[in-house]
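Researcher: Go.
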Amino acid sequence: MNSFTRYSFTILHLFLSIMFIISTTSCSDKNIYELSIEQEVLVDTLDLIGVNFYLETSASMRGYVNSNVSGNYPLKDLIPFIVTDFDNTFAVESNLYTISDKKQKYRYSNAKFFDQLRAGKVFTGKSSKLQNIFADVISATGNGIVSILITDCIPDLGKINTKTEGSKITSQLYNHLAGNKSLGVAVFKYSSNFNGTHYFNRENNNGVPQTKRPFYNQILNDRPFYIWVFGEQTLVTKVLSKNIIKTYQAAHTYNLPLQKVEVGLLKYPKSGKISITPETNTILIKEIEAKRPATFTIGLDLEEISDLQKNQFLDSLNYRVYPKYMAETIDLMIKDKNRLLLEKLKDKSVIESSSYTHFIQPTLYDFNLGTEKIYLKNFNKEAEWINNTDLEDDVDISKSDLENKTFGFQFITKAFSRAFPAENESFQLTLTKQEKR
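Model: Structure:
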């Protein structure tokens, strides 16, 4: 090869190298996406000045304590613990009420109330119209007061067929909720043994001797009861953040925005042909295809979030991807710090030293580089357990059919889901394509 040929080859090679660098730089500039977060943040302007506890004391509730019988009867211990923990944690005035056909303030000591609870003597009320109980409790909530209702949530319309006319309960309760946009609600489901002698089905068994009732002298298993929390949104959030209500089987919130969380992109762990710059919260996407997907990691600091609201972050079913056509090309994994540290990571010290407690890892299997924005939205979807708990009828059924079920539960929950639909996202992560520099 003569000197001219060598010179020409060198110039050509240099030219191609420059063009490659220009092309790569141009492509890189076009494919940078910045992560941002949007969420409704409540302004905490109210102080908690009092907590009112309401225990439904209809005769059927007595089956949850079944005094002097061994078994799983958490109610008689749960209420004393919760009342005491609230008193010690918030140092505000608390009051105990019994409520069935009407509410009555308990005028003796907490200690006496707890003794009467354990003995079942406090359950002296008549059949309860649940819509009235909820209405009374919600109406008495406000001005710095949080109300806590303990009930079995079994509706009763008296002589009216509750099975066919239960929507009357829904509409009456909805009337008390509609327009009350500042009301925050949480519901906790518990499971208990139950003395079947005290079970009243929708036909009520009124006037029927105990020995003739369907579950006389039988122990029913996994009978639900519920703790409801009502109050101004910031106050309910404040109460829940202390995690005083524990050991529940399931829980859900209505109309309760999430607390503010810190979010950030991590340089690692990642995979695929992408680059992360945590300082600017940006991702450089070089190439993504099914054979070589890309995974990146978003850190969340949920340290101050209540256990109940943490579940909303951690359930991948609560997330939706937009544009919708991308939903089938993205998988989400959500992990806590301990789980992530069990994996083979490039630099575990980054995870160990970070303030993040949990991590969202999206994996992209395909990507259109023309996409301007990608949204990852979190919704407070109504939990599956709510629909699964509802029992259409409780007449002429076996005791196993009653397990984990509450007759007419939907008549209560439909009022809340109608008044506070989960139409808007609670939390949104957005990847926005940056303009070419």
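Model: Residues 3-12, 14-28 have pLDDT under 50 and may be disordered.
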